[in-house]
Amino acid sequence: MQPPLHRVKTLTRPYVQTAIQKQLPIRHKWVVAKWAPLIAEGQVIITAHGYVGVRAMPAKGGKHDLSVEGFSEALNYMINKSGGSWKTPDSKMIKEINFEISKRQKSISN
């Protein structure tokens, strides 16, 4: 049995998959259609904006102790199940995501 999502400090890929499969029932064609424009914005932008909070999505997907890497892993899983082909970010991409997070936070606070 998996621990409750709110008790997990660092999400691993199998736990992310299990949590998403249980908590987000998917109507595949609808999901692919809705994610397509977001996927087109690119991995760095969508990860950073989602991490900070964007549109109706709360910061970090509502899981406030989630790291950039953990959030990215969960987002990658959802994107890849919705027609994308993202990879786990390497250290260079994590730096780019963190830079974009900083820019996004500054634009929101102004």
Question: Which short descriptors sum up this protein?
Answer:
mainly alpha, globular, single chain, 110 residues
Number of strand elements:
0
Strand/helix succession: HHHHH
Overall radius of gyration: 14 Å
State the end-to-end CA separation. Answer: 45 Å
The low-confidence runs, each spanning 5 or more residues with pLDDT under 50, are: 1-12
What's the helix count? 5
Q: What share of the residues lie within helices?
A: 55-70%
Estimate the mean pLDDT confidence: 77
Strand content: under 5%
Approximate shape: globular
User: Which structural class best describes the helix and strand composition?
Assistant: mainly alpha
How many distinct domains? 1
Biggest sheet record: none
